[in-house]
Design goal:
3-stranded antiparallel sheet; about 575 residues; mainly alpha
Length: about 575
């Protein structure tokens, strides 16, 4: 045991060496990381990690407890070791779904679609995204690999990522303050804050497209063209500022405790510090998906209208006809749709079809695509999964339990919120899944996710095998992400699916032709005799204190990115236009 904690201590020291404090305040954090007494280190490992990683950022016990409470229903259904811990694949899956459920954030490096093996968290691309790699480096110890992760570990990872995202926002703000020649230690007027927030939204939503950012900052008359809903975006940002003001004036004590105001601030004076601006942009990140959901819903309804057989699929002919005639949003190329996992090419009768749920969740429809996370459309399937997890409370269930539970669920994508029809092939498929697993259906396996897709085809994405689909932004894909007019017309002329009568039953269309029998589980369900990891009361969280790490991780290369267009405004994707 002593050797174990000495090893972890070396990991913390190595991470501490990467940190460059933003001010003299960081010294205390580094000093606390220089513990040499292994027994003391055992009792406060989490605190040492938090201090070693930077500026001594804090998260109180109440926040960690609230994260644990949010994670608990999902945690209860994850396969555990005999010590009640989860494996790292389960941890990554848990973290991904938490952010997806809470804020429609997709954290790069934590996507379940990324391949991983017994000795690596994922493929090399994860290591190029410094934020998840930074967190994983803390967890990448022999101790954790052998002993698993507790619920508190999962909460710590979530809190750490929250802080890392918050710190990344600070880096962008610092850049904007510098560009506008505004000293970060001076308060801003309402007009000055508005200038900062407008530039921040341009940087944030354009992501890595530096050419586009430069053009928009130099000619702001183009904002309404680049962002058709720019006025609504401005109103949304103004609303976040108003929320800050309201909280200051009506809940001053709470404002001090959560740092949304500072000591000595006159709530009646409209002056804003750098921390105030930081608080506003943090609220923007957390609530942006909810604000933008109306656009996602509009897109969903347009696709659903083209799904006359309720299969969750739109024939490519209709998809491109819509793009040519009425809806410019549906213009991704066939190759890009395939890469995103949004194509069903399994039917010889219906031809190529666009999967509605996969398309809505695709990276091309994420309004913000930062190097370290994306803000995407809300995943409608999460509501169904949450209900199942709450009711079952275990990693697996009998088919009869699931049929009774899911059979009473309603779908807002069906007429009058109807319940799904499970008799016939869907019941048989669920029983076959259970038969392959000793009579129980694993809730977090690919086959159950596939079954849910066919139960709620418009809401639950089809689960491709790991490594088949890639979360790739238009800019990362390259110039061919948009279909040419000639390609669209070709598909529209060749396809004959639009002539299939709506009266034809979907079973006659062989609509489940994409079903595949390969199972993929996020963890071993048999359980192993693994010992527990460290037990500590963690009240500090890891935060990025080094500007070097943020600069490299948040504004670094995104791999095989190319300039998306050669026009006046080289925006990196249709994500700005949904």
């Amino acid at each position: 045991m002593m050797q174990l904690f000495n090893s972890l201590f070396l990991i913390v020291l190595a991470l501490a060496a990467l940190c460059i404090p933003a001010s003299g305040k960081g010294g205390a954090g580094l000093r606390s990381a220089r513990l040499t007494d292994a027994s003391s280190f055992q009792g406060s490992l989490g605190d040492a990690m938090g201090e070693a990683l930077g500026c001594g950022g804090q998260v109180d016990e109440r926040h960690l407890a609230s994260i644990e409470k949010a994670l608990l229903p999902m945690w209860n259904t994850l396969p555990k070791t005999t010590a009640g811990r989860v494996e790292r694949r389960s941890l990554r899956y848990l973290v991904h779904r938490h952010f997806n459920r809470q804020s429609a954030l997709h954290i790069r490096g934590f996507e379940p679609s990324r391949p991983m093996n017994g000795s690596d968290w994922g493929d090399a691309d994860i290591l190029s995204q410094k934020v998840p790699a930074f967190v994983e480096s803390v967890l990448q110890s022999k101790h954790k690999l052998e002993h698993g992760f507790a619920l508190r570990d999962a909460a710590l990872v979530v809190a750490t990522l929250e802080q890392l995202i918050f710190e990344s926002e600070s880096t962008v703000l610092e850049r904007i303050y510098h560009e506008q020649h505004k000293p970060a230690d001076r308060s801003l007027s309402t007009q000055g804050l508005g200038q900062v927030l407008e530039s921040y939204m341009i940087h944030w939503m354009m992501g890595a497209d530096q050419d586009g950012i430069r053009i928009l900052l130099s000619n702001r008359t183009l904002l309404k063209t680049a962002f058709p809903h720019w006025k609504s975006l401005q109103e949304f940002v103004h609303g976040e500022v108003s929320s800050l003001e309201f909280k200051r004036q009506h809940a001053p004590v709470a404002s001090l405790s959560d740092a949304s105001t500072r000591k000595g601030h006159n709530a009646l004076t409209s002056r804003y510090s750098f921390d105030d601006a930081h608080s506003v942009v943090g609220g923007i990140t957390r609530s942006f998906a909810s604000f933008w959901e109306s656009e996602c819903t509009s897109m969903k309804h347009a696709l659903v209208e083209m799904d006359t057989h309720n299969t969750g699929r739109v024939p490519m002919a209709k998809f491109y006809n819509s793009a040519l005639e009425t809806d410019w949003r549906f213009g991704e190329s066939e190759s890009y749709l395939r890469e995103l996992g949004a194509l069903d090419e399994s039917s010889t009768w219906t031809g190529k079809q666009v999967l509605i749920a996969n398309y809505i969740q695709a990276t091309s429809n994420c309004i913000v695509s930062a190097p370290h996370y994306s803000v995407c459309c809300v995943n409608d399937c999460e509501a169904h999964l949450a209900e199942i997890e709450e009711a079952i409370g275990a990693p697996a269930a009998r088919p009869s339990e699931l049929l009774a539970l899911v059979g009473n669920m309603s779908s807002h994508m069906l007429l009058d919120d109807a319940t799904p029809k499970l008799k016939g092939s869907l019941t048989q498929q669920l029983e076959e899944i259970a038969a392959a697993h000793g009579g129980l259906v694993p809730l977090h396996g690919r086959l159950f996710a596939q079954w849910l897709h066919y139960v709620f085809p418009r809401e639950c994405p089809f689960p491709h095998k790991v490594g088949t689909a890639v979360a790739m932004s238009p800019m990362e894909f390259g110039e061919g992400y948009i279909a040419t007019s000639a390609d669209m017309k070709k598909h529209a002329l060749e396809a004959n699916t639009t002539n299939i009568s709506a009266a034809v039953d979907k079973d006659e269309l062989e609509w489940m032709s994409q079903w595949s029998p390969e199972e993929e589980l996020i963890a071993d369900h048999t359980g192993r005799g693994l010992r527990a990891p460290w037990e500590s009361s963690v009240t500090h969280i890891a935060c990025v204190g080094g500007a070097l790490m943020l600069a490299a991780g948040l504004f670094g290369s995104t791999g095989r990115s190319k300039k998306a267009t050669d026009g006046l405004l080289p925006v990196y994707g249709k994500s700005h236009f949904v």
